[in-house]
Amino acid sequence: MQRFSLIRKKAKKSNKPIKFDQVLGMPYFVILILLIVLPILILVVYSFLAENQAFELRFSLSHYINFFKEPLFIKSMGRSLGIAFISTAFCLIIGYPLAYIIAMGKARTSSLLILLITSPMWINMILRVQALKQVFEMIMPRFYLTESALIIGMVYIFLPFMVLPIYTVLAKMDKSLFEASADLGATKFKTIVKVVIPLSITGILSGITMVFLPIATTLVVPKYLGPSGRNLIGNIIEQAITKRQYGSYGYGAAIAVVLALIMVVLVNLMNRADRYQGGSKDED
User: Fold this and answer.
1) C-alpha–C-alpha distance, residues 78 and 179, integer Å
2) Of 170, 187, 260, 265, which is most buried, counting CB atoms within 10 Å of its CB?
């Protein structure tokens, strides 16, 4: 009897009370499972399902093998990543100085500029791309439906996603650092290179992530501004799933899984770069 009473006492002590924040987070956890985890699992399962199996489920690597055997899809993947890299670089080149100017300006001016930068995001993306398409057709008809027009469209659509995270980091930066740097004899340019950019690397990496990933997988911009006959990987996935081109739904799912794995690797590399930068700062 004494043993049973001791066991009960230990069980009561081990039962920790459920915290309020855990209860509050349960609906979000359920939404995460239903709307993110479950669709991804279904996509992965479809990518491994063999074709023409009406009454049985048979797993196969045929979709992945066909993808890596087909030069068209490898070129489309490379083209998508290349355009995403170039567009992200232009977004960073334009967005960083813009974010710096906004962060260093007066409060009213900064608020107005942020409003102007984010206001196009309130409009549907298709409408914005169509408006840019009309501009190209009126002013530069030969320039329309080229990769250069596609890159301009990408920068136009996704530039705010680069500006906002960089601006957030720069706005929180201690302004006394600039005075200390000037007292040590550094010019404004040297202060930006040696002080501002290293301290804002977190915002830069966040902006690159928020811009590169959607550009590499976007469907709308290449559809209306891209050169005909040179599909990006997002268009190929759409055609495989909705129009049953290039095979089937499973083939489109396999392409999506390959692209997702590439994105996971790239994001992991950027996170490691961020951690390395943070570690080097701590050592200094």
Assistant:
1) 46
2) 170
pTM recorded for the entire structure = 0.80
Residue 10 lies in a domain: no
3 part of a folded domain:
no
The C-alpha R_g of the chain, in whole angstroms, comes to: 25
pLDDT band at 157 (very low <50, low <70, confident <90, very high): very high
Q: What's the number of domains the chain is made of? A: 1
Q: Whole domain around residue 130: which residue ranges?
A: 74-283
**What confidence tier does 244 reach under pLDDT thresholds 50, 70, 90?**
low
